Amino acid sequence: MGKKVRIGIDVGGTFTDAVVIDAESYEVIAKKKIPTTHNEGVAHGVVRIITALMDEQAISPEDVTFIAHGTTQATNALLEGDVAAVGILGMATGIDARGAKGETNVESIELAPGKFLKSCHTFEDSKSLTDEGIAAAIQDLQRRGAEVIVASEAFSVDNPANERRVMDAAGDMGLYCTGGHEISQLYGLKMRTRTAVVNASLIPKMMETANMTEQAVRDTKIGSDLMIMRCDGGVMSIEEVRKRPILTMLSGLAAGVAGALMYEKVSDGIFFEAGGTSVDISVIKNGKVMIKYAQVGGHKTYLQSLDVRTLGVAGGSMIRVQNNKIVDVGPRSAHIANKQYECFAPEGAITSAKVQMVSPRADDPCEYATVLAQDGKEYSLTLAGAANLLGYVPEGDYARGVAAPNEAAWQTLGSYTGVSAREAARQVMDIAMGKLAVVVEDLIDEYELDRNFITLVGGGGSGAVIVNALAEKMGLKARMAKNAPYISTIGVALAMVREQLERTVANPTDKDIKAIRADVIERIVRSGAKEDTVDVAIEIDAQKNILRAIATGATELRQKSLGAKELTRNELGAIAAESLGAKTERTRYVCGTGRWSLFEAEIQKKALGGLIKLRRSGVAVVDREGVVRLRKEKASYILFPKNRQGNEFHSFLDDHTTYSDANATIPKVFVFYKEKMLDLSGMQTAEQLYSILEVETETLNDEEPILAVAYQ
């Protein structure tokens, strides 16, 4: 073949999907789906699907520049309670010891009804810690059933030496061990210990899977290291998975939105990955995913994962009927009831039928509607059927059904409920969209999204069943992702390496910022990124005293935009105008640098019922692919060469700083140059901002143009 490719594999509960993507153009060259090989082991299916694709497409092992795997293994292990028992060795000394003894004693966590993550606990005084004492403590935990050890000491984020001693001792005894400092560098001993316990409980299972999968990929002779999907939308090396398997938890949810970001070039939007049983809803803002702390068994952890809202409303959601009235949609699906969809019945399969009520599961109410066709075959009435009947699913879409049997089924339900087929379908869509609209409204409010700009993006096999009708109901724009059923697998294939570090630091100094930046770069390179490709964003949460560094990078020397079509200035201007709600003729190009173009527009808004017209200006920064990365009204900007940073930019920042008797409030600032967008909006002082800007731009030549945008 000779063409360089990227391979993504996504292992789900039912199917294993794989895609081959051109490494330069991002074009999907091939895609394949096979049943997940639970009995023979997941790795067997992975090697089978890779080998089949490589043979079919004549891909040689050296053509593969990147291979990544998305897995639900960690999530499933937690959902099913298939985890190892954990022994916790807590440590502290002096006045900290009493509190630390309780905070490191994590009680068993209920993962599912009747399924627990079991743990046992012992405690040692850090001051009198000896190698013999550590060994005795670990042996005691082993006798009490511990299969894996957690070392957790108060303030170990400042000095992890004792945790490392415990980890070394456990390793010498043939046991897996996690130190609290490895999982999080935030203060908060209880939450840090709990997160480490969840991580440790997954290690034995994930080690087995990681070893098998890595060997399976090696057997294909592919030289590129296998990367694994993380829960925040990035990937990491399989070596890091062995230490921190918790980071793969919920990664299946992250893969789809990673695909929407990289493949669909979404600026601000809400992404829906809809299957047969449920839909995962997540937010993209300024071209970035929204992240929050995940919970396990109702307990908060220091695991940062995608903010995903999951709802039991999807293509296969069944229709509930009481007293000849449609009352609800879901949560059970045709898959769970083991019924075929009415809209996918073959031509002529349903000509006459009668409605009957079923209980999908033994303890479910007998009010889920199916139709019994003339030949005795039973079909479920579904949300996909309603959407097809009402014309929401376009020709050629994965969820497009067969019209005649679908219509016959809905006429049967309509007659049963005393309305027309279309009215029955309309009632069903209204109920389902009502549930989804509540979640979407919450996300719009929480993330302060602009309703005039956001797009609902549909992915998964049932995306069209949901997004078109929901956009109509809410007055929003919608579109389907290309290759929507494979969008998660595409996300795996295109994902960047990602790492994050958080530390508890009040009023971080220049030294603190430079230290965390250096540490996160070291960690991401260890996770498989090439150092030359790494970008680091620094965030300061002054309320919680958290200093955060987020690094992204690639496994090979490439930029995210490689191979993407560059738009003309007029095309970029039209996108900027739309994002600001302005007319194209009132939008002008102002300046640009690297991949970035800044446009300014005059925006007209009406007040007092249209009696008064307000005029204001807005700016939008658009990248060369047409993704709007920043849009603000009443913002100021400056373009300056690097060697004028000390006077021109400092004067610009000073001009837009608000001074009071108590303090100086600097504006929120974003900086753009070359391929880089630097978010400095979390900085509290001019000194912090200058420090990061100096570190980030130190390798630029003196004449390199830098664009800064500031707003209050």
Q: Would you spell out the secondary-structure blueprint of this structure?
A:
Layout: E1 5-11, E2 15-22, E3 28-35, H1 42-56, E4 64-71, H2 73-80, E5 86-92, H3 96-103, E6 109-112, E7 115-117, E8 119-125, H4 131-143, E9 148-153, H5 161-172, E10 176-179, H6 180-183, H7 189-219, E11 226-229, E12 235-237, H8 238-243, H9 251-264, E13 269-274, E14 279-285, E15 288-289, E16 291-296, E17 299-306, E18 308-311, E19 317-322, E20 325-333, H10 334-337, E21 340-341, E22 353-358, E23 368-373, E24 378-380, H11 383-389, H12 403-417, H13 421-446, E25 455-459, H14 463-474, E26 477-480, H15 487-494, E27 497-504, H16 510-526, E28 535-541, E29 546-553, H17 569-580, E30 587-593, E31 596-607, E32 612-623, E33 628-633, E34 636-641, H18 645-655, E35 658-659, E36 664-665, E37 668-673, E38 676-679, H19 686-696, E39 705-711
Parallel strand pairs: 1-4, 4-11, 5-8, 5-9, 9-10, 13-25, 21-24, 25-26
Antiparallel strand pairs: 1-2, 2-3, 6-7, 11-12, 13-14, 14-15, 14-18, 16-17, 19-20, 22-23, 23-24, 27-29, 28-29, 30-31, 31-32, 32-33, 34-39, 35-36, 37-38, 37-39
Helix pairs in contact: 1-7, 2-7, 4-5, 9-15, 11-12, 11-13, 11-14, 12-13, 13-14
Give an overview in words.
The protein has 19 helices and 39 strands. It is an alpha+beta fold and 712 residues long. It folds into six domains: 5-77 and 208-258, Nucleotidyltransferase, domain 5, CATH 3.30.420; 78-207, Rossmann fold (3-Layer(aba) Sandwich), CATH 3.40.50.10700; 307-484, no CATH class; 496-553; 565-589 and 596-627, no CATH class; 635-712. The chain has a six-stranded mixed sheet with strand order 3-2-1-4-11-12, with helices on both faces. Strands 13, 14, 15, 18, 25 and 26 form a six-stranded mixed sheet that branches. A hairpin with a 4-residue loop joins strand 35 (658-659) and strand 36.
